[in-house]
Write a structure and sequence with these properties.
- By secondary structure, this protein is of the alpha+beta class.
- About 55% of the residues lie in helices and about 15% in strands.
- It has three helices and three strands.
- A hairpin with a 5-residue loop joins strand 2 (about 40-45) and strand 3 (about 50-60).
- It starts with a helix and ends with a helix.
Length: about 100
Amino acid sequence: MNKYKFLKSINDNKTHHVKDPDLDIPFNQFLLELDKQKLIKVTLVYLSNGKPGIAAYWITAKGIDYIDVHRQNKKDIIIRFVIPIFTFLLGLLSHYIFTLF
């Protein structure tokens, strides 16, 4: 799962509950990985079978900062690469138009 898209989807300052709290599920493993990176906070509980599980999760301030930095990086990529390439192609097009006439 994409870390940026997931964090962006839960960036609403609400607590989100897990449908299946078992830790064997890949989505819950993903949540634990984000918790280790301090991007989200999870509430661990013990299930009726005695195994640990996840009850709820929410985004942390570090997660919000991660979203902001990633969003800024996308803008930088557009400014650095896409606009100069577009300008170069527009220059080539105008050069060929003026040489034809």
